[in-house]
Design brief:
alpha+beta
């Protein structure tokens, strides 16, 4: 069963808060599913679907990460946009390894893809997007649902050792615990950093920044109590994936640009810091050859958030984006 909708669309900068100063994320619009069943509306087929991402966005990063963990590189095409988000959506500019234009249609900005799917579309032009080349429409633009499709729907096309039955990212015996953690981590951490960064009232900022660090304290205690390398045992699960894409951005971007500055991961959370570095630096079988490191791009992260905050100055620090293992 999929978790509740997370409203995971990327926004740009101050001015997106409500009148009370609180930032509230809008729900994702396209919510169909790719399934292994060939009779389904969107059946899994190799080469049929395209994942549109921006490497700076944490929601898109989730899908790119699972795409790599599952070995889907030859099954689902990836299109990468540049790190600037505009009123027309993410743009193509060829920077930092991104595509110079949409390779399918020659589009120059992300809004054009949304309008191809629905000429009357009125929402935001967000990433990630899972696109169906055969029906020429958006299947889904909700990261929490796309990653769950990737767990199982395409298993017929990947190495047997990477299938969910062999290497589960959402093990049935841990599902309830993972779902419970997902709920509060999404509200106070994944989305909590945005509630801090985009707050336009002091009380809104104060409320959310303290909730954020209370949850980080809770995560630190969780790891200390369990004494396991990952959040729910000896192997990576969905909970690790969803937390990683926020915490890998924390010291480099959220601490400075989003004013999430009560503590730093590297200095104040030894268990979380060890967990984060272990995921990033691992290049073995657990990460399918380094999926966390290969999908993390600090320069676009810092530049993208600087642009999102309508600033021209990219923070210089921290001097190392991520520290080495002990």
């Amino acid at each position: 069963m999929a978790s509740a909708a997370e409203k995971d669309n990327e926004t740009t900068g101050p001015g997106f808060a409500d009148k009370d100063g609180h930032f509230r994320r809008k729900e994702s619009r396209f919510r169909n599913w790719v399934k292994a069943d060939p009779a389904s509306e969107f059946p899994a087929e190799s080469g049929r679907y395209v994942l549109y991402i921006n490497v700076g966005c944490p929601w898109a990063h989730r899908t790119n990460l699972v795409h790599n963990l599952k070995g889907l590189q030859d099954v689902i095409q990836i299109v990468i946009m540049g790190n600037r988000n505009t009123p027309e959506g993410w743009i193509y500019d060829g920077s930092e390894g991104s595509d110079p234009c949409d390779p399918l249609y020659g589009f120059t900005n992300h809004s054009q893809l949304y309008f191809k799917a629905d000429p009357d579309y009125t929402g935001r032009y967000t990433v990630p997007v899972l696109w169906d080349k055969k029906r020429e429409t958006i299947v889904n633009n909700e990261s929490s649902e796309i990653i769950r499709m990737f767990y199982t729907a395409f298993d017929a096309f990947v190495d047997p050792s990477l299938r969910e039955t062999a290497k589960p990212l959402l093990p049935a015996d841990k599902l309830d615990d993972i779902e419970a953690m997902n709920t509060w981590v999404y509200d106070t951490v994944n989305n909590g950093v945005y509630k801090c960064g985009f707050a336009t009232a002091q009380e809104a900022y104060k409320t959310n920044v303290h909730a954020l660090f209370e949850s980080l304290d809770r995560l630190e205690a969780h790891l200390a109590e369990r004494q396991t390398p990952f959040l729910f045992g000896e192997h990576i699960t969905e909970a690790d994936i969803r937390l990683y894409t926020t915490l890998i951005r924390f010291d480099a971007a959220y601490y400075t640009l989003f004013k999430c500055n009560l503590k730093m991961i590297r200095h104040d959370y030894p268990k979380l810091h060890k967990w984060l570095r272990a995921l990033y630096w691992d290049t073995g079988k657990e990460t399918n050859g380094g999926a966390f490191q290969s999908t993390t791009h600090f320069k676009p992260i810092k530049e993208g958030y600087t642009h999102a905050m309508k600033s021209a100055v990219v923070p210089a620090g921290p001097l190392k984006d991520i520290l080495p293992l002990d």
